[in-house]
Amino acid sequence: MRILSVLTYYRPHTSGLTIYAERLARALVGRGHQVTVLTSRFTPALPREEVEHGVRIVRVPVLFRVSKGVIMPTFGAIATRLVCQHQVIHLHLPQLDAAGVALRGRVLRRPPVVTYHCDLTLPPGLFNRVVNQVVHLMNHLAARAALRLVTYTADYAAGSPFLSRWADKVEVIPPPIELPEVTPAEVTRFAARCNPQGRRPVIGMAARLAAEKGVEVLLEALPAVLEQHPEATVVFAGQHQNVLGEVSYWQRLAPTLERLSSAGRWRFLGVLDPAEMAAFYPNLDVLVVPSLNATESFGMVQIEAMMRGTPVVASDLPGVRQPVQHTGMGRIAVVGDARSLAQALLEVLGDRKRFAGNPQGVAAAFTPDACARAYEALFESLLLEMGRGR
Q1: Ranges for all domains in the chain classified under CATH 3.40.50.2000
Q2: pLDDT tens-digit profile of 225-257?
Q3: pLDDT the model gives residue 388
């Protein structure tokens, strides 16, 4: 099949959505399909077109940004040409441009499929409320034109006002998750980078430093953790400065973070590549996912941690709570409640063996190939439904 995947940001931008799209694209190529990614050229240094790991990437120039969105005047013409060249259109929401591409797919009889990754919740403010409403409208128009809407879990679909409206189109496909193998020596070497003083326990967080990730809840929970574990330290993997749309959030948290960093209780590691992430998780005693709203629909880092035998404390959000509920490898905390988060962390840190679970079974359930096979079957069924065959 010739598959066109459309999303606003793609690699090297780092987010759960871009990692998902990259893993799926590569897995589909590995199964013999042709995959083109249509995305924004969000920084001028990126090439307009290239091929990475068999995936063709076409980037559209950006004229200017609106909050986290991008305005691309030539997007429509390029999208029309590419839709004509492909058999299936795969759209990743939230995305401002998805509705037009989905409509092109219906008109040109290329079945459009939407993967709904999460709700869009921008920071407070009149302008951001307007942007939220515009994107919300475009998402619904895309859903109307799409033949199917894919989500990670039935739990998130049931709790999402957006997906509930389109329940007859919803299909659940678990996300593609993988980590490269690393040696014990590589894990030990990484320990010198993430925890040079050798303090224990180590609490990890892997995310962008963004308002919806709940970093301030972890900061509020830390004193209670430090009271029982005076040597505890937090290591943060991911972009923490100059995050799109999050400068004011960083400025608000910076004094506390700088104080903790100076005391050796917080360490920023920056953006890690896959091999570094694989060495990161075994150096943790627990991973924390204190997300605050439906912008987080699952938290793939939870599965990555569990694959390496590391337990997780996650927020009690639809979808986000699923990995812990299904594996027993951790605890769930009340959303936005620092006391509940501290209690959950202390429970896990007090007896990690209780939360050992089955890392091999977790890894087997989320392979990119399994995800690609599920999409492949869906795409083929829709091609037959539209009378186009494979």
Answers
A1: 2-176+367-385, 184-365
A2: 999 999 999 999 998 877 777 788 888 999 999
A3: 65
Q: What share of the chain is helix, strand, coil (3-state, %, to 5)?
A: 45, 20, 35
Mean pLDDT of 358-368: 94
Instruction: Give the CATH class of 184-365.
Output: alpha beta
pLDDT of residue 69: 77
Tell me: pLDDT of 390 over 60. no
Topology of domain 2-176+367-385 in CATH is Rossmann fold (3.40.50)
Contact 86, 3 (CB under 8 A): yes
Cα gap 344→321, rounded to integer Å = 13
- This prediction has a pTM of 0.86
Residues near 286 by Cβ (< 8 Å), separated by ≥ 6? 201, 203, 204, 310, 311, 312, 313, 330, 345, 348, 349, 352
Buried b (16+ CB within 10 A) or exposed e, 118-154: bbbbbeeeeebeebbeebeebbeebbebbbbbbbbbe
CA–CA gap between residue 343 and residue 200 (Å, rounded): 18
